[in-house]
Amino acid sequence: MPVPEKLLPAQLFNRCDPGSFEFGTTAELDGSTEIAGQKRALEAIRLGMGIRHDGFNLFALGPSGTGKETTVRQFLNAIAPGRARPDDWCYVYNFSKPRNPKALRLPPGQACRLSNDMDHLVETLFSVMPAAFSSEEYQAREKEIGESLLEKQASAIETLETDAREHSISLIRTPGGFAFAPVIEEKVIAPDDYMAMKKEERDKIEKEIDRLRGSLQSIMAQFPKWQRETAERIKELNREVSAFTLKPLMEEIRTRYKDIEEVSRYIDEVEKDMIENFGQFLEKDAPEDGPIMMPPLFSLAGRKRSAVRYRINVMIDNGKLDGSPVILEDKPACMNLVGDIEHAAQMGTLITDFTLIKPGALHRANGGYLILDARRLLLEPFAWEALKKALRTRQIRIESLAQLFSLVSTISLEPEPIPLDVKVILLGERRLYYLLSTYDPDFNELFKVAADFENDMERNPETHLAYAHLVGSIAVRDKLLPFDRGAVARIVEHGSRMAGDATRLSSNLQAVRDLAHEAEYHAAQNGRTQVSAEDVEAMLEAQRYRASRIQERMRDAMMRGMILIDTASEQAGQINGLSVYSLGEESFGSPSRITARVRLGKGEVIDIEREVEMGGPIHSKGVMILSGFLGSRYAADEPLSLSATLVFEQSYGGVEGDSASSAELYALLSAISGIPIRQWLAVTGSVNQHGQVQAIGGVNEKIEGFFDLCKERGLDGRHGVLIPASNIRNLMLRQDIVKAVESGLFSIWPVTNIDEGIELLTGVPAGEADASGAWPAGTVNARVYDRLRKMAEKQKSFDKKPGDETVH
Amino acid sequence: MTSTTKNRVIQSIAVAIDCSPHSKASLEAAAEMAGRLKAELIGIFVEDINLLHMAGLPFAEEVRLYSSTTTKLDAAQLERLLRQQAAQARELLQRAAEARTLQHTFRVLRGMVPEQLMRAAPEADMLVLGRSGRSPSCRKGLGSTARTALSEGKMNVMLMRPGVTAAEGPLLLLCDGSEASKRALVTALEIAGPKSTLHLLVTDPDPEAVERCRQVTEALMSGRDIETEYYHLPFTEGKQLASFIRMIDSGLIVIGEGMNLPAETLRELIDNIDYPVLVVR
């Protein structure tokens, strides 16, 4: 088996040539930021925004920082101006059902105009109405109506009085009413004189008085009716006068909005109500119902509360909008989405009216686009349900949460719902999308389009330039120094490192932005006029240094022998594995000692990590694959009679992942064969049951972790790392490693199978089985095979012994 | 009759009180004027003998004003009611007088109302009463008591109606150069305060009449600073006068009885005008 060649320095780092850029510094770029490498997502956005059907809302998913919001906004800002401007909306008083304010739709820009017109109308009425009602003409007519009632009453009584007088009877006013009495010469007959009269005469008088009393009663019974009639006449007069006063003013408004049927209807209702309630315009200052401490909203400079109902609550004014609205709601709380009905405290009670209805983001975005952050939306109580309801029913119904859950019980409103036509764009992580998609049946109905943003993009001259444009636009927007092309190239290289792939670039625009800011800070600190590659390098170095506390403490412990990592001798059953530690945003690699011990047993490989529940399932899977490999390669025909234990020495946290499985296998083979492993090498890579070495993650960090330790102990040319050959394209190593490799002080071998690896690690050929399945003598495989056979025989003899005893 | 007294024409004012809205207006006006002239206020309440007689009749029944139901009336109950009214009247007078620290007396009489009033009033220099009283049909024009006071009374009579005041303000005086109108002018000047405007309406058709009237007035004013305005209106028809007076929109109208104007014209004017009227004798 040939041993693979060491990797060449050029294979360790995919350089970006500053010379490939045509510009000198980013100041020469036009500052545009075309998002590159998100073709798939853009296609989805185009589709989602293009289909004007129900449910074709969009979920933009991808890791944070990939420019979801920027991309969506850029796209929308480009298409929105070409779309139709949506109508204005306002809420007005509902004269027949005050609890249900009416929603009025007006062409863009008209709502504010109507509001001003109505305010002006009311203002005018407060001066015009009193004038009309204090006019001499009105006063005279009102007086005349009143007089006519009195006259009617008086003349009815007068007739009766004349009638009575003809019979020598007088109608007398008593303290409580009227009475009749016989008179002689204007004087009432005294009782004694009366009794002295003849009975017939008395009877005649009494009969006459009875008759008169009856007539008086029937006259007086009519009085209330006459009074009612008079009141009605006065009311009619008032109506006539107020209607006459109102008419020219209303006509003016009506002609202005004659094309909008709903508004015309509303104006008719207003006119009717104003005529009925003309009285409110007559008293200027006294607030109704007497509360002295009116909140400012209701006192309206001394205006009566009742006049508030002629106001227009403009919810949405699209007058100054250019095309469709694009709204980004940063705090998607329920009431910020669907609007709210506020209350005002008045004398200790909470009151509300239609002027306190507040629009939400859905109102503002109606007819356009609403961008929301999915995680924030889901964190807000009831907001997600409210949004779904609005999208499902295609209308915005404002319900106060407090009302819904009976937290307050006070005057409430149920405003008429407003029809909704909006495209909602949710931005969120992939996990959220999949969770919602799995657990919320409404979700797939309402968000039919998913724009999946890539974590990274292909690396080619085009994306290099896109990076340059991005850096340039950041510099312009955030007023940074320009970046020279060397700096841009370095940032591109780091973009590959972030992507963990020499052929790709990270799509994490946020990270690039942060990088640019830091690098610029370095340049500015050094008094430079533009940011150079050295500044970027210094910034990266500084970043590494800031994040390296734990890494250095661990290396320190290794140097002092607290953590046992051997990088000089050769040992059997012991190998340097490589692991990656992830702490928040930062991750670093570090070597770990993996040891294997074998003894006679029943063919199991014991993973100590798993036994103590410190290993994850993937790690356990890797270890179990080892027994599969061992059994099938070396003990196909007889039982695998060993018991092996594998452990990550001095590991006190958990271990997860299968990237150490090849190292474990090497340790195991070394332990079985007794051939020592070179401790100046470290290994990473997973292995399958056929002994093929497979790709792993974090290869750069792992190599750097081992390199740092070796460098500190002194590089002697022997040190190196075995990596899976399939990980070569992931290599974006630090410049100091590349230099060490160039000078032959450090080596990296790409390994495709276990035999290559074990040969590199032991210096002993692995050996290939011949046609009969026998291994060439002296090779690693042969020694493993022999040892296993011996163990099997020993096992067999052990198994026999108890049987023999029984025979004896 | 003390109207010829040189220095003060009015030293006491009588007012008829029966607790009706008209009489309340009269009391207010009388008190107001008495306060200004430092005159004594005499309140007169007449228990109507007609009422008492009626209540004594066996069939007496009252038709209630607001329910049109009937209830039996008896004399004792009526007596009580009248006493109550008298007490109320006294209280009204007291309140009006004490507010202005006026000397006041209150008198309760029994009999026919106009008769009793005519008998009691001559003690005072002026009688103030409502244009109409409590009798049902005399809403228009003058009430029977007012009519009697005008036709039979020998003192100054001021007729009031609710809703207008006799507070210090503009006065309107009818002038025709007669002795009676001069008397009226003297009284008017006495009533007028420094803020009053005196409107003089000259009815004498003679073109020189206004100038004469001015001379007489200025002589009588003897330097007092009262604003005066003169109008010449050579009409003798009551309705025309009334409408002209309405145009001027003055307050109290002062008329001297026995002016050259025909008596019917004056009567018609008094009947039709809505302003309080003072008839000077």
Topology:
The complex is a heterodimer of chains A (808) and B (281).
Chain A: H1 39-50, E1 58-61, H2 68-79, E2 88-92, E3 102-106, H3 110-133, H4 136-166, E4 169-174, E5 177-184, E6 187-188, H5 191-195, H6 199-256, H7 261-276, H8 296-299, E7 313-316, E8 326-329, H9 334-338, E9 340-341, E10 344-346, E11 349-351, E12 357-358, H10 361-365, E13 369-373, H11 374-379, H12 383-393, E14 395-396, H13 401-404, E15 418-419, E16 423-428, H14 430-439, H15 441-446, E17 449-452, E18 456-458, H16 461-477, H17 485-499, E19 504-506, H18 509-525, H19 533-546, H20 549-559, E20 570-571, E21 574-583, E22 586-600, E23 604-607, H21 608-611, H22 617-634, E24 642-648, H23 661-673, E25 677-678, E26 681-683, E27 686-687, E28 693-694, H24 699-713, E29 720-724, H25 735-742, E30 747-751, H26 754-762, H27 780-807
Parallel strand pairs in A: 1-16, 1-17, 8-13, 13-16, 21-26, 23-24, 26-29, 29-30
Antiparallel strand pairs in A: 2-3, 2-7, 4-5, 5-6, 9-12, 10-11, 14-15, 18-19, 20-25, 21-22, 22-24, 27-28
Chain B: E1 12-16, H1 21-37, E2 40-48, H2 49-56, E3 61-64, E4 70-72, H3 75-98, E5 104-111, H4 113-120, E6 126-130, H5 144-152, E7 156-160, E8 171-175, H6 179-191, E9 197-202, H7 209-221, E10 227-232, H8 238-248, E11 252-256, H9 263-272, E12 277-280
Parallel strand pairs in B: 1-2, 1-6, 2-5, 6-7, 8-9, 8-11, 9-10, 11-12
Antiparallel strand pairs in B: 3-4, 7-12
Radius of gyration of chain B: 20 Å
- Quaternary structure type: heterodimer
In percent, how helical is the residue content of chain A?
A: 40-55%
Total number of helical segments of chain B? Answer: 9
Number of E-type strands of chain A: 30
Category from helices, strands and their pairing of chain B: alpha/beta
Low-confidence stretches of chain B: 1-6
